[in-house]
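Long-time lurker, first post. I've been practising inverse folding by hand and with some scripts of my own, and I keep getting stuck on stretches where the structure tokens seem ambiguous. Below is the full token string for one chain I'm working on. Before anyone asks, I'm not after the true native sequence, just a reasonable design that respects the backbone. If someone could post their per-position residues I'd love to compare against what I wrote down in my notebook.
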């Protein structure tokens, strides 16, 4: 399957491959890191929506597979 790369000028996040390939982070932690890094620098969370999303993820098979 070919890789489709998009050359966007806005609304995207660049993340160093070294972070993505780190053996010190689980798949779930890497996903959370990517999500957090996508927010603007001055972003402040004022509700519990992200915390709820994280807690739901902990109960999912994806989270459990990342913890092994």
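-- Answer (accepted) --
I ran through it position by position. Result:
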């Amino acid at each position: 399957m070919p890789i489709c790369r998009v050359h966007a000028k806005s609304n995207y996040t660049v993340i160093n491959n070294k972070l993505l390939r780190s053996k010190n982070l689980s798949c779930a932690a890497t996903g959370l890191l990517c999500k957090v890094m996508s927010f603007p620098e001055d972003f402040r969370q004022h509700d519990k929506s992200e915390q709820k999303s994280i807690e739901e993820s902990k109960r999912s098979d994806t989270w459990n597979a990342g913890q092994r």
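A couple of notes from the structure itself: Residues 27 and 66 are 5 Å apart (CA to CA). The helical segments are 17-20, 27-37, 49-58, 61-66. Happy to go over any region you disagree with.
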